[in-house]
Every structure is written in C-alpha cells, then in structure tokens.
Queue: 4 jobs
Job 1
Amino acid sequence: MEHIKETLKGFHDSWRLVKPIVYVVRSPGVLNRVLQCSVINGALFIGSILFFNKLVDPFLHRLGGGLGAYLEPIITFLYYICWLYPVYIVSFVLTTFWVQDIFDEAFKHFYKGTTAQSKPLTPAEFVSYLVRRIVMIAIFLIQCMVFTYLPFPFGRIIEIMHYSLLYSYYCFEYITMALNKGLAESIEMFEYNWSYFLGFGLSFTMVIITWPGIMSSGAFCLLFPFLVLTSVPAQVDLKKRKGTRLPIFAVSLALTNKIFDYVV
C-alpha cells in the first residue's frame, strides 16, 4: 500500500507545473533556454519530419507509374542522411547543454542555502562517472529490450516501467550530481525510492510512446526540459535509505563493474 501511495505521489509531482511555470516566466534566461529547446526540437526537428511525411512523401506517391516508386527510396534516404539525422544530432547536443543551464538556474532557485554533503568529484572521477553511466544505461536499455519479448501485455508493462524509471533517473541525476553524489550512491538513492520515481516518470513515458518512430526522439528532447523543471521542486526524500529496495540497476551496474574491472 505504501508503494502505491508513493507511486501516486510521484505521478502527482510530475504534473505540479505551477511553480516551474511561474519560475520560468520570471526568469528571462531560463525562459530563453526553454524557448530554444522548443524551437529546435519542435519546429525544426519534428517540423522536418512532418514536412516530409505530409508533403514530400504524398507528392512522390502522386507521381504515379514507376517514377514515384523509383524516386521515393532515394529521396527518403538522402533526406534522412543529409538533413534529418544531422538536425537530430545537433538538436540533441544543444538540448543537452541547454537543459543543464535550465537545471543549474532552477537548482539555485529551489535549493537556496543547500550545500553539497560530499566533496566535489575530481576531473578524473567525473570522467569515470560519465563513462560508467553510459555503459550502465546501455546495458539497462538492452535489459529493457529483452523484456519486450515476453508475451503481451507483460512485456509491454515491464517495458513501460523500465522507461518510466529510466526517465526519472535522467531527471534526478542532475540533482544528485549537483549534490556531488557518486554513481553508486545515486543508484542507492534511486532504488530505495523506486515507487516514487516509477510514478514520476510514468506520464512522460506514456506521452513519448504515443509518438511513432524517430518522432519519439524529438518529443523526448522537446518535453524533457519541462520534466527536469518539475523534478527540482519535487517532494521526494533523497536521503531515504529504509523500506524495500528494488535493485532495478543491479544487473546493469554489476556488468558495468565487471567490464571496467576487466578493462582497467
């Protein structure tokens, strides 16, 4: 019953938009970053997909005969390789930096007077953290993909749970990093609060999975800044180390450590 309450609390907090919206409106720098994320991911990237799907592709189909069938795969390939994928890469990289700026300003505002309880990571420790994180999340995504082969609806439900937890981790990792928490401590905090984070990431996941194909990537980059903004003032106990710990990253972390022990 306690886990259900925590899941509902997380879901509710993910929709508590009043404070973040008021803060964005009153912060010109943050508002500018949010608008930049919206333009490059919404208007440019998603707009490019809609332009091709709604205008270019139907036009090729109307050509009739063998010409349209001949040109369609060539033009589609060139459009994606020469325009859409480069736009996605650029938008993803820029969004990464802009979301960090958004979080930094929001953290200063909502965590006034808060100081990190741990020493800052050294450059070497920070690089190690990033590399381990990338490997761990890659393994976690493979784990998620494996579960999709389970019979419906079990595979689908587990997949949604995995992505809900992962998207929440993406958000709250900004906070643990700002508080100078290492990867192991960050994972421990997350696994003790798993039910809250499941609820927090659920609505975002349900929105993302409704977008087809590559458009889901654009939707993620478009909406993620808003999820990060709602995570900063969220009512979650980051010091909680009691109750049931769900080892959702246990396999990923164990394999990551094995890989690094073998390589290093």
Note: The first helix runs from residue 2 to 14.
Job 2
Amino acid sequence: MTDEINPKREFVSTVYIVKDGKVLMTFNKNINKFIPLGGHIEENELPCDSVIREAKEESGLNIELVDLGELKEKNLPQNLDIQLDVIKPDHHHINLSYIGKIIDGEMLDKSDEDTELKWFSPEEIINSEDIFENTKEKALKAIKSMESEELNLSEYQKLAKITAKKFETPEKEILTWGLGITGEAGDIAGCIKKTYAHDNDQRQGIRENIGDMLWYAAMICNFFGWDLQEILNENIEKLKKRYPDGMFTIEHAKRKGERIDWNEK
C-alpha cells in the first residue's frame, strides 16, 4: 500500500509586466525556463504587495498592478489567474498571477539572482521552447488585456478638461489655448534646433512638448465641443482623397487650387 503524500503548499505571487506590447520575464535556472517575475508571499504580506516588492527586487522597476475585476465593492486588485504549481510531489506552490505596468525605475541588466531578464513579443512567446505552455497563454492574455488599457482620445480629452484652469470669459479661455499651442510648437522647434544645430540633445524635450501641444489641441476641441477622434478621422479621409495612390507625390501635394487658406477667408 502506497503512503499518501501530504505536500507542503506555499503561496507565491507572480506578475506579467507589459510594456509596448511585450512581456518581461526572467530565466529560472532550476527549471531552465523563462517565467514571470515574482516569489513567495511573506508572513502577513498581501499577494499584491508581495509581487510589487518582488518585481522591484528582481528587475529594479517600480510597477502598479492592473485591476481586472469589474466588481465595484472591492479592496484588493483582482488578479489574472490562480493555479497550483507542482514543484515536486511533496512541494506545491499556490500561484496568484497579476498583470503589471511600469511606473518608473531603471531596469537591471540581470535579475537579483544573476539571471537573464528579457522582453518577449507575442511572436517570440509563441515560438519559444523556453516558456511553459500555460505561461505562454497567460503572457499573451496579459498583452491582450493591456491593449484595452491604452488611453483613448475621448478619455484623454476628459482628463485634459479636468486639469485645465477655469476662466472668467470664453474669450480668455480660447485665447489661452490658441496661444498655448503655438508656444508649445515654438518649444518643439527650439528643441529641434538645439539638438541638430548645436549638438545639444533635446529629444526628450521634443517628446514632452509634443504631449503639451496635444493637451492644448484637446482643450481647443473641448472648447468647441468637438471630438478629437472625429477630427483625426476627417484628416485621414482628407489625406486619402489628396493622395489616392496612398503615397506622397509633388503633383498631388500642389492640390491645384483645392487648398483653402483659412487666414484669407
């Protein structure tokens, strides 16, 4: 008669950190596979706190967890999955998996255990022989879930409005947005000049000022009650008509009198 095994069961939490459509994983030398970041949950530690701590220790990155739950009444972020990992017949891990996104921090060259940290695209995940099949499934789901997390233009307009100053008159408001967008455009030009004419790298300034210019564009749309997405769609349709072959040509760019000079109307 075979003795019944009563395995030791420990709680662990892991996180699939997603950035730019890729998932960060670390190589585990014990099983020779790439796995999500994470580790054992310490005594009196919440699973969500544990995995944030583990991610920082292993990668150097500060993360926040993506709440996947739809319940209104809750006090913890809802996780991606829970499963039983059979390490050995007498040793099991109860694994709570989360999806995370980076807040800040500088990623380490290697993990705290001196193992490889690697970003995987969906194609690389599917084709890798160094990732368990159930890990592949959750990694791909994490990437897919984060696609819907990206801020859309309607949400951006609402957030812009919340952060905007209140004005005494509509005239002062629209003048501020109009002059503001030209000011940011000037800042972009200045950063480009410094970068390429004065050998002073201001590319981050270009990027930041583009964001500020978009904020002013969103506020102009809010002022007139316009939808920014609709305006972009209209612009795409205009470009399709202007370049019917789908590419730039001098002939089509001239527009043969079709261009409207709104400053002269």
Note: The chain is about 45% helix and 20% strand.
Job 3
Amino acid sequence: MKVFRVALCATLIGIWSLAFIPAASAAGQGSNDAATIKELTELDRKWVEAAAKHDTAYLNKLMTDDFFECSAGSGGEISNKQELFKKVNAPSRHVKSITVDEIHVHLYGDSALVTDRTNFIGSAIGAHNVSGYYRVLRVFVKQNGRWRAAGAELCHMAPSVYGKSY
C-alpha cells in the first residue's frame, strides 16, 4: 500500500508537469535563463535550510497557498502547506545534518521543475530515523513577478536495480 501511494503521488506530479511541455518548447534559451537558474538553485537551498531550522515564516512566503507535498517519509500521503508546517515544527523532529547537491533546473516559461539530491541525517515524528539520501522534485511557478513553490515530491533513494549506486 505504501509503494502504491508513493507511485500515485509521483504519477500525479508527473501528469501535472506535462501541462507545461508546450511552454517548454516555446521558452527557448534566453540570456535571462542563467540568472533564473541561479535564482531557483538558491531558492532550493534556502527551502532546505528553512525546513531544517523550522522556519515556517520563510516557507510560508515561499510557498503558494495551494502548495502540496508528497513524501516517502509520510508513507506517500499528500500534505498541504499547513500539514507540512506541523511536521516541520514537530518537537520530536530533529535535524542533525542536511546537505543538497545535484541540483538541476528545468525551465518552462513561468514554471520550473527543480530536482536535487538531499542527504538528511535525523529523525521525524516519533523519533523515527529517516536518515538517507532523497531524490527531490520541486515545482516552482512565477506569481506576481517572483518564484513560488507550488509542490514537491521526496523519494528515498535505495540501491538501484539497474546497477547505479549512491
């Protein structure tokens, strides 16, 4: 059942992102792309830092009102912004270390998909150890001239059946 929920969540995000394929081919490679990629890369890092520091004030400004997240740590359930903030602020959630690398930005007009590899060391609600590498997909949209987070999906990385290891 857990695998089904994670797969369903990933499928929903994938289907939602397909709506932006026509915009991707029209977007082209402009001189602003480098600046936008740098901005979104920085937003990705700040997002992770804010979550590690329980900074829901920053996250609230970053995220759209209808933000949602699907997380392997939550058994694949879909959480809205307020539910996510409860998890971020849970007293039993402890972050020992968190690092982000392998950031890739894909621009589609006023939408962007950002992927990264996050190494989280710590525990979640109930002192459950959730340490490990996660592949993360973040969805950004441009609203009123600034980039906002609209959604995210986190998938715990396990050894690949295809031979690639992390």
Note: The helical segments are 2-18, 21-27, 32-52, 56-62, 81-88.
Job 4
Amino acid sequence: MVTRLPAKYLWASMRVTVSLTITGKMPLNATSFNKTTKVASMTITKIHGSISVSAISCTATVDGTGATAHNGMVKATFSNTTDTLKVLATGGNLHIYNPSSGCNGAVSNNDAVNFTGGYKFAPKQTITSP
C-alpha cells in the first residue's frame, strides 16, 4: 500500500494552472521547405521567461542553456495547407532554472521542459522557401 508519494508525483496528479510569461521577442525561423507537402520546418528562438504555479507557490525561469542565456529554442512546422504552426515536443533545448522553494521537488534546476500546440496565423501566411 502506498501511503506517501514524492511531491513530483503528487503534483502531476493535481489539477493546477500553470502560467508561462515570455519576455522579449521570439524569432520564427524557417530552416527548410518541402514543396510537395507545403510544410516548412521552423525554429522559434530566443525563448526566455518565467513559469508560475500559484496553487503551490512555485516559480521558476524557463530558458535554454542557462537562466539568463535568452537562447531557449523549440522546433516547429508550418503547413501552408492548414495555415497552422505546430510546436513539436522534441528537438528543443528548454530547461527550468532557479525553481522556488514552493516547487518542493516538483521541478528541479536544469529539468528539461517543452511546450507544444498548434497556432493559427491571422492573416493567412504562405511560406515558399526558408
């Protein structure tokens, strides 16, 4: 019988709101374009921000190679057909830095992290080359 779980596992089972605030501009860079599928491979760079989980008073910095590096990066694709930017779950370098004591082991310094999702562009965009 399990009577206690480490905070990391307990936190994962809770329903909490996580807020992410990005500071500065994040360039969207096309790296290749597939003319057949009309899909561009992209990177989003210079990601730096903070993450907050108010339910447990947890805050931390999100960045790439260091807390003040301002070089966080994720990979993405953009489809001309669906007009959607899809942030991928792999290929980035985002990490957590300087978690507050409220995080209580839910996240640790240098833990890898990512965000994923699909984002529609308005007005419609068409990419034809990197």
Note: The beta strands are 19-22, 28-34, 39-47, 49-53, 58-63, 72-79, 84-87, 95-97, 117-120.
